[in-house]
């Protein structure tokens, strides 16, 4: 934990066991680590956790923090906002992001910790992506006639959701939304387009940039240094 430890201890002093239990639904039978961990998650909200990276001088105003996170992380930062005034720090602001659905179905989030639900990784080849997307859960009926008669559940259709997340062309997205919902496009066409979008707008550029990263780049990026100008 290193430099962050004093801030973690300070947060732990501010948090009551009752608040942590009520926020996370802990029981008396849970191990003490579950009660202690929220302070570790909360501490990076405050610049004091990074004294060598966010170097501050006496009298400097506190730095503000914005946290992009999924909604399931919100309880941690609710606690952070509660303790911030007592720590004489700014309460963190949150930017909630949506879950990317797993290929198995929109009720699952795509996560490397649950690969059985179907994930696309940044290291996948184009062929691997296309194979995976072809097997993704579809929100349409069994036949094109079923789709035209009953429509498509776009919220449940994983390929459509991939297009919605990653396609930068709003006109194309609107066209797919209109045609697919009316059965003028079938699932195979949408899956093929989804694979195109993921490969072209996510994987290709990232993999090319990743190939250009050197050991010196990694050392520079991960080195402990002040990042304030």
Brief sketch in words of this structure:
48% of the residues lie in helices and 7% in strands. The protein is built from ten helices and four strands, in the order αααβαβββαααααα.
**Approximate shape:** globular
Number of strands: 4
Helix content: 40-55%
Determine the CATH superfamily of the largest domain. Answer: Tyrosyl-Transfer RNA Synthetase
Q: Structural class of the helix and strand makeup?
A: mainly alpha
Q: Uncertain regions: pLDDT < 50 for 5+ in a row?
A: none
- The end-to-end distance, rounded to whole angstroms, is 25 Å
Biggest sheet statistics: 2 strands, parallel
Average predicted confidence as pLDDT: 91
Radius of gyration: 23 Å
Instruction: Please state how the strands of the largest beta sheet are arranged side by side.
Output: 1-2
Number of helices: 10
Question: Domains counted in the coordinates: how many?
Answer: 2
- Following the backbone from N to C, one meets helices and strands in this order, namely HHHEHEEEHHHHHH
CATH architecture of the largest domain: Orthogonal Bundle
CATH class of the largest domain: Mainly Alpha
Indicate the proportion of strand residues: 5-15%
The CATH topology assignment of the largest domain is Tyrosyl-Transfer RNA Synthetase
